Amino acid sequence: METLTALFAGFQTALTPMNLLWALVGTVLGTAVGVLPGIGPALTVALLLPVTLTLEPTSAFIMFAGIYYGGMFGGSTTSILLKTPGESASIVAAIEGNKMARNGRAATALATAAIGSFIAGTLGTLALTFAAPAMVEVALKFGPAEYFTLMLLAFTAVSALLGSSVLRGLVSLLFGLGLGLVGIDLQSGQARFALGRAELLDGIDVVVVIVGLFAVGETLYVASRLRTVQDAVIRVRERVSMTREDFARSWKPWLRGTLLGFPFGALPAGGAEMPTFISYLLEKRLSKRKEEFGNGAIEGVAGPEAANNAAAAGVLVPLLALGLPTSATAAILLAAFQQYGLQPGPLLFTSNPTLVWGLIASLYIGNVMLLVLNLPLAPLWARLLEIPRPLLYGGILVFATLGTYSLNNSVFDLMLLFVIGVIGFLMRRFDIPVAPAVVGMILGPLAEQQLRRALSISQGDFSVFLTRPISATILVIVVLILVGPLVVRWWQATQRRST
To answer: Which residues are in the DUF112 domain (predicted)?
Structure first.
């Protein structure tokens, strides 16, 4: 009952004219950037961080939430019409969706993706409404030892699961941890890694790092591959709609995708990629028309797109309840909270309930806005794919530069931005994931703080992490994440040799 009362208060906040306007701005921006290949919600929120400092926090996060959900909606358009997923979670939808488009059913593919996204997003937000307060109750039992091991879990899970290899993920994580250590140590007062520069004594601004890695790094990477051949955009000429048979074949995949996506999104580094693949395989197994899979099966679009959007809602559960980012966009949202002097976690629900519940309520409103925007305006969004890439990414580079300079009016920040941008380009070039670096930079100082507190309370006894049940359980999970894949590979190699 308390949850429903808080949600009702959240709707009162979200339904004010100004917050409705920011929700609309966020959903429009999110849909637009979701449509454009290579520009996801993470990059858009990163670009907007410097220019939203003047906004009231609740309005800013309502807009960011609209961008996040809108990016998931819009990503399906690129996948279906261009077979170039804007987000890794849209890869599966590209398999069947592009085949449907080439068979003259682009409008139907876009419709099942949009309606499935709406249903999954709404049900996922409903689950978020009740799951986040329940997780807060658990989080209130956490002490410094539990928080440190929880952050250790975030480090290892994001590093091990978000890249093509554990080693690449750990390299990215260590880079981020190093950036987080720059500046004055709050306990000893000593300067660390400041290189004698007064500008670095306060540390590196997380916004500079995020914009550099995502916006500048992505722009340089796209410029280096500009001459590669691109697929032609499939035009949408008819009205986006579905027949009765299409609905009959889609509604069960929508529900199954939602049930798969939300729990994976809530897990540390569970992400949206795994549930979308599982959803696709499940629909293929359950389908009575297996011959259509690979040739444009509507179930292969409906299920994965629902799983993708439900996972987006699941990601917000650990972020809001524990302050734990489980995706690149969540890490940037965590940086946005810190930009406003807020720390997500159990105390945020009591210290700033207007923001939290206004944000959750805005997700329901944003989902309705997105359905209205995507169904009738799908042909218009598709036209965005025809923007020449040099103009698009040139504009992003200019916007990133101006936004970063406006933070502190500092030329040094601009130099740092482009140095980090070059590093971001090299990370993309050598397939080193960017998300672990962002998580490492944001959570690194917090993890160090909790480690020192835990050891101070235990008088330097490291066994405190093993004697407390919750922290010990989390450490076991950390070991399984790191060792599990190695054991599986060793077992498979042993089986192959024996046969």
So the answer is: 20-438
Chain centroid offset of residue 190 CA: 35
Token digits for 24?
Answer: 């609309």
**What is the reported pLDDT for 358?**
92
More confident residue, 495 or 254: 254
Q: What Cα–Cα distance (Å) separates residue 139 from each residue in 1, 144, 323?
A: 20, 11, 10
Residue whose entry in the numeric block shows the structure tokens 């999110």: 30
What is the arithmetic mean of pLDDT over 177-199?
81
**Tokens 């340089």, located at residue:** 220
Neighbours of 245 (CB within 10 A): 9
Of the CA atoms within 13 Å of residue 370, those in its CB half-sphere come to 40
Integer Cα distance of 323 and 334 in angstroms: 7
Note the pLDDT of residue 264. Answer: 79
Asked whether 29 and 70 are in contact (CB, 8 A), the reply is yes
Q: What is the DSSP letter of 183?
A: E
pTM as predicted: 0.76
Count, residues in the chain: 499
Half-sphere CA count of 363, side-chain side, radius 13 A: 28
Q: In this predicted structure, what is the pLDDT of residue 237?
A: 64
Distance CA 359, CA 146 (A): 27
pLDDT of residue 162: 56
Q: DSSP label at 191? A: E
> What ranges do the domains of the chain cover?
2-498
